[in-house]
Every structure is written in C-alpha cells, then in structure tokens.
Design a protein that fits this description.
Chain lengths: ~300, ~270
C-alpha cells in the first residue's frame, strides 16, 4: 500500500509534483500514467525516500520509507535511470544488497533465476544489453520479496518478449497480494497491464480511476460502422446508453454496443456493412486529451 | 513465482535487517567486486616498494639523476625515509581509490539502491570508510614493511626496527595512507564528482604545500603545517623539526580532517536528494 498525501516537490522554479493525493492499493497493478515530465519518476523517488518532499507525505505500508527497519522487504523498486555499476557482476550487485539487508544468500539465486539471468550472473554488467540491465533491475526490486513493488517505466528498452515478461510478472505479483505501482508514458501499455490508473499531467493528478472506467469514459468501446444504409442501421441501434453519431455520410460512430451486436443487427435486417471496427486509437487520444492542457501549459512555460 | 521457500520463511523470523555486520558485508562485497579496487591497490603499493628501492639504491650517488633530486622533503642521509618515500605517490592513488568508491556509486546510479537499502544513509558513510580503511591499512602495512625490508637489503646503515622511532615510522606510513584513502571517500560524498574530488585531494596534498612556500617565512610555515599532508606526514619523520607538530599530534590533525570530512558528509547527505 502506498499513500501519498498532498505530496509536493519543487526543484527551484519547477513544480515537479503538485499536491498529489493518491492511495495505491494492494492486490492489483496500478498504472501510473503521464507524459514525459509529468512527475512520475519524482513521485517514485519520494516514495523511496530518495528525494525529500517539499510538502506532504509519502507512506509505504503505513510508514515513511526511511522509518522501516527492513526497507528492502517492504518495498522493491526499479527506478528509471539504470543503477548498476558496469564493473560489477550481476551476482555481486545482488549479493551486496542481500548482505546489507540481511537476506538469505539463496534469494540472490532465486531472483537471478526469476529474471532469466542465471547464465550471465558471473558476467560484468557493463556488457549487458539494455534489456538484460532492465531484467537485473527487476531482480533487484524483487530481492527482498517485498510487499510493495515500484517499477518506473520498466518496459523501456525491452524487446516484445521482455515486455510480455514484465507484464505477466507484474500481474502475478499483484495476484500474490502485493501492491504493484507501474509507471509508463504509454497508454496502450497501461491499458493491458493495469487494473487501475493514476494519471498525472504536469505534476498534478488528472485521473484516479479503474482502467475499465477510463476506457469507457474515453469512448474506448466505440464502434465504427460504414454502410450504404447507415441511416436505416442507426435506427436499429437505438437504446438506453447507446449513442450514435454520424460524422460523415455513410459513417456511424456508435458507443454503448459491441461490434458483434452491430453486425448481428445489420445482418438481421439484411443491411450490407462496408466497415465494422472497434475504435482502439481513441484510448491514446483520450489520454492525450486528458493531459493536453497540461502539456500546452508546459511548452509555454518552459522558455522562462 | 516469488513464493518463499520454507528456508526463506525461516529466515524471515530472524532479525529483519543485516545490521552492522550486514552493512559492512555489503560494502565489502561492493569493494572487492570491482577490479579497479585491486588494480589501484596493487599498483599503488608495488610502486611504493619499487620507488623505495630506486631511492635507496641510488642514495649514495646523491639520488636519482645524481644531483640530489628525488621526492620533495626526502632526507638523503636517512635510508629509512628514502625507503618509504614512495608513499608520496601511493597516497594519491589510494586517495583516488577512496574517491572512486564513492563517486562510482553516483556515476553508475547504484547510490540509489544503496540508500534504498540503508535509508538513514550515515551508516553507509561510516561503513565504506571502515571497509576501505581496513583494506588499505592491511595492504599498506604489507607494502611499508616490504619497502623497509627492500631498503634494508640494498643499503647499509638502515636502522633496525627496534631503533628509536623506526617501527613508528613504518607503521605510521600505513596509518597515513589509510587516513588519506578515507579522506578520499569523504571528498567523494561531498563533491559527488570524481574530477572535483580528485582535484581537491590533489590540491590539499600536493598543490597547497607548494603554494604555501610562497608565503612569508615569518608566518607561512605556521599555516602550512596545518595542511593534512604536512601534519600527517610528521608521523613519517624519525625526528621532527622545531616549530612543527610532533609525530602523533600531526597525525591527530590529519585524523581531524578525516573526521570533519565524514561528519560533513553525513550532514550533507541527510537532507540531499539522491
Ligand atoms: N533532480 C531534478 N532537478 C531539477 N528538476 C527536476 C529533477 N528531477 C525532475 N525534474 C523536473 O521535474 C519534472 C518532472 O520530471 P519527472 O519526475 O522525471 O517526470 P516523468 O517521470 O513523469 O517523466 C520535469 O520538469 C523535470 O525536468
Ligand atoms: Mg520518468
């Protein structure tokens, strides 16, 4: 569990995080979404006690991070910037932390295995690819078998296999009852990984909703239908919660029904369809729209 | 996936942190797992012994080059001083080693996982100082005795270890080098940049004493004797000149620099963002 209360961080004139109040619950993957510069990484560093808040508090599992006697067992983190010494082997990197935290030596082998790094554990990290470094970062995060896992842009630099691995891992960790806080600037990534979304723009909270709700609000269940008898079809689709728009002749944008329903109704009435597609792109668009104002403001503000 | 094994669950019942032992163990793993640690250590100490050999074996001809050149401040009539004079170069290498152990954490970013594991931060400052200090002390004791033995073998007139002050000078050389290495860690914490910390170390130990010679003779020496290298170097003198620190008082001044540096590091780190 992560509880942020009025969390604020200013660097000189820049307000990186502005009065953020959010609770990140255990048992689900919470996506932390926002464009670059929104303040996600800063927030996560404050959760880890690395940066000191200008105002407000960040509690993890009920306490400030620094107050935990066993921090690595409470919180495991993969932070944005790579944090590995190129001259050290993967195993030595983990052993040093395991020794400091008083973790059993076996944990090092367990997480190396979990990250698929056993065969390169004795190699110096300097020779690792971005993806291998990221895997070692995840292994580091899980070293203390922590109740709360913080992952800052974990899919950056990963190949599709790696992305799938992280996604499955994050969901698995949540299913074990852990708190998983997973940041990304990519809506598409979040929509398939996270059950709940915390959306930030320019340091401020923009949305704190379930992913399903976010997608619904974003019109993610819209269906695009093209038919020579569009007007007739529109009449067949009416109902409560259903909206039908016709942005151009022969084209309908329908929300509140599935593509299957539209297809079935059209077939039932013998109406030919030239196109029938769920509208996926609107997700990214909704995210952009939500954070648009903040983005604009940011570009104007930057030169000062 | 990450479900605990029974062994791990048993371990869970043990104290939740590694404590002091864990902290020192972790710092030791970090120190020993870098090849550069061993390269610098070995390089510094071999150079120290070889320089001692060079200075002692050429002493009769008036030093390397035959014109009495050689390390600044070396007394060519004193084989003990000559045999250990390589400490001058070794201190720079060992000071840099201390700097690198800390700034390497910043340049690589590992400082974030280090401080995540020890959020109070100050134990890391002390733990690193202790681990590096112990390592350098052991290695430079070996090197100091080796340099002494090599010097004794190639020159006549090397005073025996039992003679007045000789053991103190040999052991003192190792103590001095240890203090400089630990001072390097403090400079690393305070400046976070390798270049900056090395420059300050170089300035304190090499540059300021030279600049100090430009000061008026009436009060200049009173100022320069407080420099860390000048004060600590007293421990390496068989007999100390009037108007300078006694061996142990001088070393205490050097230790004072180290303590101030470490305390300043702790204070600075407490409030700083990583
Ligand atoms: N250490 C720092 N010093 C100064 N400004 C910073 C620092 N860290 C972040 N910022 C600024 O704070 C804002 C938020 O950055 P960040 O938290 O990295 O956003 P995100 O992770 O969402 O991309 C940006 O404008 C960034 O330039
Ligand atoms: Mg970021």
């Amino acid at each position: 569990m992560i509880e942020l209360r009025g969390l604020t961080k200013r660097y000189g004139a820049t307000t990186a995080v502005d009065d953020l109040t959010v609770t990140v619950r255990p048992g689900i993957v919470t996506g932390f979404l926002g464009p670059n510069g929104a303040g996600k990484s800063t927030t996560m560093r404050m959760v880890l006690g690395l940066d000191h808040p200008t105002a407000g508090t960040a509690l993890v599992n009920g306490k400030r991070y620094a107050e935990h006697r066993d921090p690595l067992r409470q919180v495991g983190a993969l932070l944005e910037a790579r944090a590995l010494h190129p001259g050290r082997t993967a195993r030595a990197h983990l052993q040093a932390l395991a020794a400091t935290a008083g973790l059993p030596r076996q944990r090092v082998e367990t997480v190396l295995d979990l990250a698929g790094l056993t065969s390169v554990a004795g190699k110096r990290v300097g020779g690792f690819s971005l993806g291998m470094g990221q895997r070692l970062g995840v292994a580091t995060a899980l070293l203390g078998d922590p109740a709360t896992v913080v992952l800052d842009e974990p899919v950056n630099g990963l190949d599709p296999d790696g992305v799938l691995w992280i996604r499955t891992l994050a969901r698995g960790l949540a299913a074990e009852g852990r708190t998983v806080f997973f940041s990304s600037h990519l809506m598409a990534e979040m929509s398939v990984t996270a059950e709940h979304l915390v959306v930030m723009g320019r340091g401020r909270l923009v949305a704190d909703v379930s992913t399903a709700e976010f997608i619904r609000r974003a019109g993610g269940d819209a269906v695009r239908v093209r038919s020579p008898r569009a007007g007739e079809l529109a009449g067949l689709l009416t109902g409560p919660d259903v909206t039908v728009e016709s942005p151009e002749r022969g084209l309908l944008l329908v929300t509140g029904v599935t593509a299957e329903t539209v297809g079935d109704r059209a077939a039932g009435a013998g109406i030919a369809l030239h196109e029938l597609a769920p509208v996926q792109a609107s997700l990214e668009e909704a995210f952009m729209a939500l954070t648009h104002d903040d983005r604009e403001y940011r570009t104007q503000e930057q030169p000062s | 996936m990450t479900t605990s094994t029974p062994q791990e669950q048993a371990a869970e019942k043990q104290p939740p942190t590694g404590g002091t032992t864990g902290l020192l163990g972790g710092e030791w793993v970090k120190t020993r797992s870098l090849r550069s640690t061993w390269n610098v250590l070995l390089g510094a100490l071999v150079a120290m012994v070889l320089l001692g050999l060079l200075f002692t074996s050429t002493a009769e001809s008036g030093g390397p080059g035959g014109n009495g050149g050689g390390p600044p401040g070396a007394d060519f009539a004193q084989p003990l001083t000559l045999s250990l004079a390589g400490y001058n170069l070794a201190q720079l290498a060992l000071g840099v080693l201390g700097v690198l152990l800390v700034t390497g954490e910043y340049t690589s970013g590992t400082v974030r996982s280090t401080f995540a594991a020890t959020p109070k931060r100050w134990p890391v400052v002390l733990g690193k100082a202790a681990v590096l200090g112990a390592l350098v002390l052991v290695a430079s004791l070996v090197a100091a005795f080796a340099a002494y033995a090599v010097g004794a073998a190639v020159t006549d007139g090397m005073p025996g270890l039992g003679a007045d002050g000789v053991l103190r000078v040999v052991v003192g050389t190792a103590l001095y080098l240890t203090a400089i290495a630990v001072l390097g860690t403090a400079l690393g914490w305070l400046l976070r940049s390798t270049a900056g910390a090395v420059a300050v170390l170089f300035g304190l130990v090499f540059l300021l004493p030279v600049l100090g010679q430009l000061l008026p003779a009436s009060w200049g020496p009173d100022v320069t004797r407080w420099l860390p290298g000048q004060a600590g170097g007293q421990l390496l003198q068989l007999s100390t000149a009037p108007g300078t620190f006694s061996p142990w008082a001088g070393f205490a001044v050097l230790v004072g620099y180290v303590v101030v540096g470490l305390v300043a590091s702790v204070v600075r780190l407490r409030s700083r963002d990583v």
